[in-house]
Amino acid sequence: MKISKPTLLIDRYKVASNIDKMIKKAAEAGCVFRPHFKTHQSKEVGKIFREKGVNEITVSSVSMAEYFAEDGWNDITIAFPCNILEIYSINNLAKEVELNLMTDSNFTGDFLSKNLTSKCGLFIKIDIGYNRSGLEYNSPEIDEIIKTCEQSNNLIFKGFLTHDGRNYSAIGKAEIERNLVEAINIFKRLKQKYPGAIFSWGDTPSCSLVEDLGFFDELRPGNFVYYDVMQYHIGSCSLDEIAVAVACPVVSINKSRSELVVYGGAVHLSKEFIAADNNFTLFGYVVNIENNKWLNPINGAYVARLSQEHGIIKMPPKELEKFKPGDIVGILPIHSCLTANLLPDNYIIV
Amino acid sequence: MKISKPTLLIDRYKVASNIDKMIKKAAEAGCVFRPHFKTHQSKEVGKIFREKGVNEITVSSVSMAEYFAEDGWNDITIAFPCNILEIYSINNLAKEVELNLMTDSNFTGDFLSKNLTSKCGLFIKIDIGYNRSGLEYNSPEIDEIIKTCEQSNNLIFKGFLTHDGRNYSAIGKAEIERNLVEAINIFKRLKQKYPGAIFSWGDTPSCSLVEDLGFFDELRPGNFVYYDVMQYHIGSCSLDEIAVAVACPVVSINKSRSELVVYGGAVHLSKEFIAADNNFTLFGYVVNIENNKWLNPINGAYVARLSQEHGIIKMPPKELEKFKPGDIVGILPIHSCLTANLLPDNYIIV
Description:
Two copies of one chain form a homodimer.
Chain A: E1 7-10, H1 12-28, E2 32-33, H2 43-51, E3 57-59, H3 62-70, E4 75-81, H4 87-96, E5 98-103, H5 106-115, E6 120-125, H6 141-150, E7 155-161, H7 173-193, E8 198-201, H8 204-209, E9 218-219, H9 229-234, E10 244-254, E11 259-263, H10 266-269, E12 274-275, E13 281-282, E14 285-290, E15 293-294, E16 302-306, E17 310-314, H11 317-320, E18 328-332, H12 336-342, E19 347-349
Parallel strand pairs in A: 1-19, 2-9, 3-4, 4-5, 5-6, 6-7, 7-8, 8-9
Antiparallel strand pairs in A: 1-10, 10-11, 10-18, 11-17, 12-13, 14-15, 14-18, 16-17
C-alpha cells in the first residue's frame, strides 16, 4: 500500500520480540500473563499474542471487551472502575466470556450483586500511592465489598489489582524498584489477611525493568507491545524496541527556520509531550522511512509543535535539505497508546 | 438516549446562536463567510450552517473534503498545505466540486500544474508571524507560484490565505487587535501588488473579538461554532457560549482527596490543557448535567488529570457529596476541535 496520509507503521518483528520478552518475564516470575490490550486495540495485533499462547487479556472499557470478545477472546478483565451504567452490556458479555470487573466501591459492588445475571469475577482496586482510584489497603470498605460478594450469586471476589502509575513519571530502574518495594509491603499485609486472593500487577516500566516480579500472581502490562519515546525516557526500552512509527507526508519546508511541516498533527499523534527544564518540548522523535521500515532517530531532529493536522519538525539544515514536499518522514510517538487509538484504520503491519 | 459512556452533548441553540453572530459579523465586514468545518467534522452540524444559507466551507484535509462533498457541499477550500501524495483523491474531488487548494511551495504548485485533471483554485499561504507554514509577503516564490498558475490549464491563482495562530496564545482583545494591525500592514502591500487577489482570513479569537474585519474578502473561523475553555480564557467567548460538554459517568469517588474519577479520559477529551504559573493544570471545567443540558461550571471544580480512559476531577467536598457512582457529570473541553474529533460517533445534539 502506498502511503498518502498519516499512517501507523507497526513493526511485526519488534512487536513479536517485545511480546516474547514479556512472556518470558511472566513465566520466570510464575505469573499469569494477562496483557493489556488498550495499547493496540487491534484484533490483528491480538492475533500475534494468540499465536504465542496468550489467552487471558486485560482491557480498559466495556466497548473494548466487546470488540475483543467478538474476535474469540474469552477471558477478559476490564481493569477500569466498573461503570454501572453499562450493566446491560456487561451482562451480555458475561453470558459469553469469563469476565472480571474491578471496583473500589461497595456501592458499585452492591449494584453488581443485585443486577448481574451471569457470574463475574471482581477485583478490588488498591491504591498504592498513585492517587487515581482504589482503596487504601486498610480501608474497611475492602471487607464490605468481599462480604457483598459472599452474599451474591453472581459476583465472585477474585483478588486485588493495582496500577502503579507513579512509574510513568519515574526515571530509571532504581526509582521504579523503590516504588515496587513500597507496593509489595502494602500487598504483603493484604496477602496475610486474604491468603486465597489473586494479586494482579501491571505497568510497563516495572514489568520491563524489574527482574523479580514473583510476589504477584498476574502481570498486566500493555504499552510494552509498542513502547514509545516516553518509555525510552523512563528507561523501560531501547530506541530499537519502539515498534511503531507514524509515517507522515511532508507538506511544507521552511529553510530559514530549518523546519518541515508534515501532515500529521494532534489528531494523529495526540498532544502528549515530554517537557524539559529549559523550555524544550518534545512531541516525538523523527526517523527516516525506507520501505516502510525505520532506523534510529535523525540526530537533532524532533517534533517541536503540533496543531490539529500539522506537525512542525525541527531538523538540522543538512538533514532538511534531503526532503521535498511529497516525501514521507516517520515520527516515533511520545505515547503509543494514544497514537494507536487515533489511527484505528490507518495502519500497516510491516 | 440514555447516556452510558462519554458522550459529546452539542447544544443546538448555542450552536445556532454562535453561527448567527458570526454570519452577522461577516456580513457587516462585507466578507464571504467560509466557516472551517474541522471543529465539528459533522454532517449534522453542517446542516445547521446550511439552513442559515452557508454554502462555502473550509476543511483541513482531503478526507474531510470528501466527507462533506458526499453530503452535497460543493464549494470547499482545503486550508492545509496541499499534500501532493493525495493527487488521486484531489482530482476525483475537483471533478465534482469547486475546490480550492493552498500551498507555500512552487514545487507543489508545479506538481499540481502537471497533475491536475480538473480546474482547482489555489491560495498562497502567507505567514504573518505564526511561523507554522507560509511564505513571507516579500518572498520571490509568490511570483513563481503565480507564474506557474498562469501557465497552467487547471491551476487558478485565487489569492492569499493566512491563519494568525498567535491569537490562540493571546489574552484579550488588545493583543489580538495589535496582531491584526500587523497582519493588515503586511497584507496591504500584497493588495497593492496583486489587486485582484482574494484575501482570506480566519481564526476564532480575532473573528470573535475584532469589530471591523472589512479589510478581508473572506472569513474562515471554525472553533466559534462550539467555543471551549481555551477560547473563554483568551476572551473570545463567554462561558454561556460554549456549546459542547462531554457527559461522563462517575466511576469512583475519593472523599479524602475530594476527587471524582469519571469514565472520560485522554481518548475522549484529548490531552490539551491550560497551565497557570502556580503549577495549576486545567484539563476542563466541570458542569452539572440535567436532561442533557448544563449550567455554568461548578465553582471550584476542575479536571486535574487525565489518563487514557480516566478523568480525575477535583471538587469542593460539599459538591462532591452530591455524586455517587453511576451519576453523570459534564466536562467543558479545553479544545473542542480535538474533543469533537475524538467522539465522532458518541454525540447527541440536544
